[in-house]
Automatic annotation (TrEMBL):
Keywords: Amino-acid biosynthesis, Aromatic amino acid biosynthesis, Lyase, Phenylalanine biosynthesis. Its EC number is 4.2.1.51. One of its GO terms (biological process) is L-phenylalanine biosynthetic process. SUPFAM superfamilies: ACT-like (SSF55021), Periplasmic binding protein-like II (SSF53850). Residues 4-179 form the Prephenate dehydratase domain. Pathway: Amino-acid biosynthesis; L-phenylalanine biosynthesis; phenylpyruvate from prephenate: step 1/1. The keyword Phosphoprotein does not apply. This is prephenate dehydratase. The keyword Manganese does not apply. Transmembrane segments: none annotated. GO terms for cellular component: cytoplasm. Gene3D superfamilies: 3.30.70.260, Periplasmic binding protein-like II. It catalyses: prephenate + H(+) = 3-phenylpyruvate + CO2 + H2O.
């Protein structure tokens, strides 16, 4: 056990905040890419990896769903983090002097209203905290960053405006990944995440989903994405409420397997209280 949790981004990223919230006793390990964070966990440099999967305003985080099935890691928890966006600039800069704001594409899409109202040009950065770091290094008052207030504290920037996100309930869902699955826990509400590919028969997806409806299993997410660069090979990613050992979930899964060519449970974990 290393007592470390890996995440993508610089110190001060929202993934850093998620780590502090979900695993406050762990040392954080910043990584350049999602793949690097996954590999750090797989290689034993970290015990866990914190990965963002979706945002309530922007939608799915690109590439994550495609990376999860082949990661070799398993989901052991989820964490919902309320995303408060701040406009950060070098000390002593008035808002009127700022001409552009830099951040990750996902975050830029979460505060379009503020940028438009203040005539600020959106500039794409590698990530949120990384953009704050760049603003601090350049020292140009015309350039600001959109990031967390934690990033502002770390890189010595002033907060020119806070909570500027378009939606007041702006939230990002993260998954806590580990090398080994843990299906032993039971709580008031459990979640199961899995991927599957349907057999090449008419109405296969419709038939595969029928078992969840007839057995009263609530499916909270179903998404598809191409695999292997083929327009005909489609994998589905799903979240359902319940545990595979629950009678109704077991029956639904049995029916799903009949109509699929592949199925893999990525994780069984307690629902975050914010979901409930």
């Amino acid at each position: 056990m290393t007592g470390r949790i890996a995440f993508q981004g610089e110190l001060g990223a929202y993934s850093h905040e998620a780590c502090r919230q979900a695993r406050p006793g762990y040392e954080v390990l910043p990584c350049r890419t999602f793949e690097d964070a996954i590999e750090a966990c797989r290689a034993g440099e970290a015990d866990l990896a914190m990965l963002p999967v979706e945002n309530s305003t922007y939608g799915r985080v690109a590439d994550i769903h495609a990376l999860l099935p082949g990661s070799g890691l398993r989901i052991i928890d989820e964490a919902f983090v309320r995303v408060h966006i701040a406009l950060l600039s070098v000390k002593g800069t008035p808002l009127s002097q700022v001409e552009a704001a830099m951040s990750h594409t996902v975050l830029l899409g979460q505060c379009r209203g503020f940028l438009k109202d203040h005539g600020l040009k959106a500039m794409t950065g590698a990530d949120t905290a990384g953009s704050a770091k760049i603003v601090a290094e350049r020292g140009d008052p015309k350039l600001a960053a959109l990031a967390s207030e934690l990033a502002g504290e770390i890189y010595g920037l002033d907060v020119l405006a806070r909570q500027i996100e378009d939606q007041s309930n702006n939230t990002t869902r993260f998954l806590v990944m580990a090398r080994e699955a843990d299906h032993s826990r039971r709580g008031a509400q459990m979640m199961t995440t899995f991927t599957f590919r349907v057999r090449n028969i008419p109405a296969a997806l419709y038939k595969a989903m029928g078992g969840f409806a007839t057995n009263g299993v609530n499916m909270t997410k179903l998404e598809s994405y191409m695999v292997g660069g083929s327009f005909t090979a489609t994998e589905f990613y799903a979240d359902i409420e319940g545990h595979p050992d629950d009678a109704n979930v077991r029956l639904a899964m049995e029916e799903l397997r009949y109509f699929t060519s592949a199925m893999d449970i990525l994780g069984v974990y307690p629902a975050d209280p914010r979901r409930i």
